[in-house]
Design goal:
With 206 residues, this protein is of the alpha/beta class. The protein has a single domain, classed as Vaccinia Virus protein VP39 (Rossmann fold, 3-Layer(aba) Sandwich). It is built from 7 helices and 7 strands; from the N terminus they run H-H-E-E-H-H-E-E-H-E-H-H-E-E. It has a 7-stranded mixed β-sheet. Strand 4, helix 5 and strand 5 form a beta-alpha-beta unit. The radius of gyration is 16 Å and the shape is globular.
């Protein structure tokens, strides 16, 4: 892994993902997690402070980047819930079938190279009664903004650790075998529209 990926990118991602508005979204989504949780692409652990220790048993923190896991150290030390690392990508989740109550996906589906394989794994490990909580940025509804998302994504991916601006998140979830139970879409304030179109909600196994 290059110096940029291991040292610079974790700093940039941590900073971009901890703005006031992003933290507000986390505060709305993460407390809904219950039981045994799988957080896919845990990054620098910015969700940890929002887990409800009364409702969560433990959290599997799946994160393939060593630089991100190192960056998470402080948040991990302050975590209200027990966290166990899985140093693998979402395409290779090493957990038992139907063993997870909540899958949490925040700002990660944009980045996973083989999103079909990763969603298949999330679907496999989720209990039939489980839920997938998501807060992801992705494809905008307006044609002109979409055009720019498509144009800029090839360059953006190179500097942004593989992040795509143009993924239709809710379509991907449905294609991955999930049924969307709640979905809120909106633009984040003070964020360029090509980056800030959000999909926030809850899905279950279809
Ligand atoms: C923009 S960051 C978001 C981190 C965290 N979810 C958050 O909300 O702050 C995207 C994360 O996805 C991770 N990632 C990259 N490829 C992945 C993969 N194949 N499976 C799971 N996570 C991956 C990156 O290392 C990075 O930590």
């Amino acid at each position: 892994m290059s110096f940029y990926e291991n040292k610079v990118l974790p700093l940039l991602i941590n900073s971009a993902c901890s703005t006031r508005q992003v933290m507000k979204i986390r505060r709305q989504v993460v407390p809904r997690a219950t039981g045994d949780v799988l957080e896919v692409g845990m990054g620098s652990g910015l969700n940890l402070e929002f887990y409800d220790r009364e409702k969560v048993n433990m959290v599997w923190g799946l994160e393939p980047s060593e630089g991100m896991r190192l960056k998470a150290r402080a948040n991990l030390n302050a975590s209200p819930v027990e966290v166990k690392w899985l140093d693998l990508p979402g395409e290779q989740i090493p957990l038992e079938d139907e063993s997870i109550d909540t899958v949490l996906l925040t700002y990660t589906l944009c980045t996973i190279p083989d999103w079909q394989a990763a969603l298949k794994q999330m679907h496999r490990v989720l209990m039939p009664t489980g839920k997938l909580l998501f807060a992801e940025h992705g494809r905008a509804p307006e044609t002109d903004i979409r055009k720019w998302q498509d144009r800029i994504t090839p360059i953006w991916k190179k500097i942004g650790g593989g992040c795509h601006l143009n993924r239709p998140i809710s379509d991907y979830l449905v294609e991955g075998g999930f049924r969307i139970e709640t979905l809120d879409t909106f633009y984040m304030k003070k964020t360029p529209r090509i980056v800030g179109h959000m999909y926030v909600g809850e899905a279950v196994k279809a």
